[in-house]
Amino acid sequence: MNNRQGSLTELEGAILSEIHHRGASTAFKVRKAFQESMSLEWRGSAGAVYPAIRRLTDRGVIDAAETGSGRGTVLLSLTPQGVAVMEDWICDAERAASVGLDPFRLRSGMWDRLPPVRKAEAMAALRRTVEAEIAALRQYVVSLDPIERPRIELAISLQLTRLDWLDGQRAS
Amino acid sequence: MNNRQGSLTELEGAILSEIHHRGASTAFKVRKAFQESMSLEWRGSAGAVYPAIRRLTDRGVIDAAETGSGRGTVLLSLTPQGVAVMEDWICDAERAASVGLDPFRLRSGMWDRLPPVRKAEAMAALRRTVEAEIAALRQYVVSLDPIERPRIELAISLQLTRLDWLDGQRAS
DNA sequence: TTACTCATGTAACAAGTTACATGATTTA
DNA sequence: TAAATCATGTAACTTGTTACATGAGTAA
């Protein structure tokens, strides 16, 4: 989590991308965007977003221009250096290719060790919940812009893989 | 992250499972197991594992029995309540079915917005890295016990899905 | 004028990270 | 006896979380 020279946290990278690609001009709007659409990964908590933007501004990758409006609105944009840093973050193949944190995968070897009845209940509940997630994601995906759509499509693929895996377990 | 009544962090749940299912009897061995085989998700840092075990012991779900050996070895086991708490964690369908944190998915909408040359380079590097990950996982999976194997098989499935997705991008 | 939205942020807390400190026992 | 391994842990730090505080502008 050391934040020196060039490396960004996932949240920081996402914030830069949001500002650059979607022209989200204020911290408030960035937060809103995270809360509404990226809620899969983060909550967009004020206590995370505002400090992150402060860090990025201090590092010179975000330019914060006060508007003098009564609401205290501060317009955010990327400096040229910020664009470079953002692109490096997007193109970091090592990080992009790492498997990440997956609560399903983490538990996947343990369901089989449960008492039989408990296991059967758990698998059934799991299947229902995954199916519900897929339905929700499918309904959600139609309304999305080009940045968000792949994210949700990949989430659907992940859930379908889980469903397949659950089928395989039932067969064995 | 509030840790009251029944709820466990992912690390805490994994620790309980490790102790119960694999009979990992000391904090040291739990750490080792995380470092060696679960490194996909965590580092098994001392600063995470020891405090987590302390929390679980204080909550009465782990029984810590000192052996009086010169090395200060403390044998860990689950209390009956601990087994119940662990099973609840394993069977938590809401959490198991959530998509988790995925650095690939997070970036997936952004590669398309890069300058064409940069994009082509990034996609090529990504493909190479994902393929290397798959090769490494396939080599690794043969040597695993029944708890670990599904985890790695699902990681391979995830990487294959990514590869498919990259193919789809190249086609369009 | 009341309520909602825009807009900023801080404080207390949770739970990871690395790096360090300490010492006993076993193996080469 | 020197090095590796077993075994415990703490300290400083990072970066998330929720909950709270403050206030201006806008729409009912």
Quick summary:
With 172 residues, chain A is mainly α. Chain A has helices at 10-22, 27-37, 46-58, 80-90, 93-96, 103-107, 116-141, 148-171, and strands at residues 62-66, 74-78.
SSE string of chain A, helices as H and strands as E: HHHEEHHHHH
Largest interface: pair, residues per side = A-B, 58 and 57 residues
Structural class of chain A: mainly alpha
* Assembly context of the chains: homodimer
**Approximate shape of chain A:** elongated
Strand order of the largest sheet of chain A: 1-2
Provide tags for this entry.
mainly alpha; homodimer; two-stranded antiparallel ribbon; DNA-binding; 8 helices
Task: Note down, in words, how this protein is organized.
2 copies of one chain form a homodimer. Chain A is mainly alpha-helical. Chain A has 8 helices and 2 strands, in the order H-H-H-E-E-H-H-H-H-H. Chain A has a two-stranded antiparallel ribbon with strand order 1-2. In chain A, helix 1 crosses helix 4 and helix 7 packs antiparallel against helix 8 (148-171). Chain A is elongated and about 65 Å long. Chain B binds a DNA duplex (28 and 28 nucleotides) through residues 1-3, 9, 11, 26-29, 31-32, 42-43, 45-48, 50-52, 54-55, 69-74.
